[in-house]
Design a protein that fits this description.
This protein has 387 residues and is α/β, with parallel strands linked by helices. The protein has helices at 5-18, 24-40, 60-69, 80-92, 129-139, 157-166, 180-189, 207-219, 248-252, 256-264, 281-287, 290-295, 299-309, 324-332, 353-358, 373-383, and strands at 50-54, 72-77, 98-101, 114-120, 140-151, 192-200, 226-233, 240-246, 269-277, 314-321, 367-368.
């Protein structure tokens, strides 16, 4: 029988409200320690990387990574109380993180989306943990990195857990401990490669486990409370197809040729088709899903965008290449031209979301490209039906 989301949520809401586990200062210190260990082991962190903390708690890890490395941080947790705290500290620290309540076994993100996934002390709390591994593999980009930190089977930690359960003092619900060998085999079966792991003793505040684990760890490096495991998503050589739509404001701004040259400058890009066209209202409305805008509470915004896309000629470009969906989306840039990096297409626009809102219209941001395989398939079905 699987551990249901509501059951997990109830357990961890209580922990976050009542336990010393929720001490933010303690969690910051522990996160610093774990990040330091991972960096020494070669974990790569670069500005702009999409990083998911699956089981983010109060967001401590993401706050540190955003501040130090300029990552794009996203956090999910099954506990509503944890998400409330994460949002509170995000606002307090002026960190532009995105936090959602979600179950690790069913994640609300497109495939091939994240550069790095961190999941520290999460999958051991449900017996169908393989579903979480499947989801990590789905949403991780090819060659992206997965980092797990799990309670280790070869430690005094499991003995402590059993004793606390017998005494009725265990707070964390269901838990299973893993060996590195077991998780490496599982991740290999799930399509991961470059799998490495090591173990460390626990933090000193776990006194009854710390000293015993520390002593045995000096004798055998395979003994310790924390199991650190890093793996990469296997990269295949399948070529992807994607779409770029150059919008009407590129024509009025005389930027069409410049934008096309930027696209052509991408490495190993094959432009299969390029066509100036006038989209139909049906095509534009199909592209901008009505139900999505209604769910966001923005039906009027959809009308403004449709009007903008129908205001003049456009160019549709069909592109093929390796990892091309992500590379083209990154080249196009952020929705708001004002915040889009200088090397992107949208940074060429003089418009901004703020200005568009003031003038009650859609932002004019020059181009569109899908951000995921699902979106690319949808765009292809609308704009290149016969290709």
């Amino acid at each position: 029988m699987s551990i249901e989301s509501n059951e997990l949520s109830a357990i961890w809401d209580k922990v976050w409200k009542e336990s010393h586990y929720a001490d933010h200062r303690l969690r910051i210190e522990r996160a610093k320690n774990k990040i330091s260990i991972l960096l020494k082991k070669g974990l790569s962190l670069k500005p702009g990387m999409r990083v998911l903390d699956a089981g983010c708690g109060d967001g401590s890890t993401l706050f540190l990574l955003e501040k130090e490395f300029g990552i794009f941080p996203v956090g999910i947790d099954v506990s509503e109380e944890a998400i409330k705290r994460a949002r509170f500290f995000s606002e307090k620290n002026a960190v532009s993180s995105e936090f959602k309540r979600a179950d690790t076994r069913s994640l609300p993100f497109p495939s091939n989306y994240f550069d790095l996934i961190l999941s520290w002390g999460v999958i051991e709390h449900f017996n169908n943990y393989d579903l979480a591994i499947d989801e990590f593999h789905r949403i991780l980009k090819p060659q992206g990195t997965l980092n797990l930190i799990q309670p280790h089977r070869f430690s005094f930690g499991p003995i402590q857990r059993v004793l606390l359960q017998l005494l009725g003092r265990w707070e964390s619900g269901f838990q299973i401990e893993f060996s590195g060998k077991f998780l490496k085999k599982l991740l290999t079966q799930k399509g991961f490669t470059n799998i490495e792991y090591f173990v460390t003793p626990p933090f000193p505040d776990m006194k009854s486990v710390y000293y015993t684990d520390l002593i045995l760890h000096t004798l055998w490096k395979g003994w310790g409370h924390y199991l650190y495991l890093t793996a990469s998503k296997y990269e295949d050589n399948v070529l992807q197809k994607t779409v770029v739509l150059i919008k009407p404001d590129a024509f009025t701004s005389n930027l069409v040729d410049h934008i096309i040259k930027m696209i052509e400058s991408l490495h190993n890009v094959n432009i299969l088709r390029k066509e100036v066209f006038k989209p139909t209202k049906e095509e534009v409305e199909a592209h901008h899903n009505k139900d999505l805008f209604n769910s966001l509470g923005e039906p009027l915004l959809r009308e403004k965008i449709v009007e903008y896309w129908l205001s003049g000629p456009m160019i549709k470009i069909l592109i093929e290449g390796k990892d091309i969906i992500d590379r083209v989306h990154d080249l196009v840039g952020n929705t708001d031209p004002k915040t889009s990096p200088n090397s992107t297409i949208r940074s060429l626009s003089k418009d901004s979301v703020e200005r568009a809102d003031q003038e009650n219209r859609a932002v004019r941001n020059l181009a569109h490209a899908p951000r995921s395989e699902e979106e690319a398939k949808r765009d292809l079905s609308i704009w290149f039906k016969n290709d």
